[in-house]
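[[Local backbone shapes]]
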Amino acid sequence: MKLKIVILAVLVVSLYACHHDSDSINNDSSDINIEVKHLETEYGCTDIEVNLTNDYMVIRNFSDYTQHVNSNCQANVDFSTYDLVIGKQQLSNGLASIDYELTKEHETSNLNLKITFTLNDTAEAPNVTYNALIPKLDEHQELNVEVVINQQ
């Protein structure tokens, strides 16, 4: 009888410990970083144009892609897996670099895309096209896009 009580007690403590550990894993409040892919790196598209200024759009299907995006290549984007965020930003100086950071919020599953333009000292003021292939948004997910412009 004592053996059964000991075994039962060990089992209860083990189950509680496992449940407690899974709760601590699931309640991790940190956001998840997601790799950003681009038309340039995935499909070799180098001359991409979209008719926007200081704005962006989310393209969710091939029909919208062919209607809004002009490119030197025909990218066969898998729109069942990705959405394409594409936009243009007018800069006050020349462009040194563009950096992308995509995070998924732990609590809401919303995506945050931060696009950072680093400018150089040249006098040219380009209207730069940017793009990011992001995981397909579901109907309840939101995308927040933040554009940051830094002087080098």
About this structure: The beta strands are 32-34, 48-50, 55-59, 69-71, 82-90, 95-104, 111-119, 127-135, 143-151.
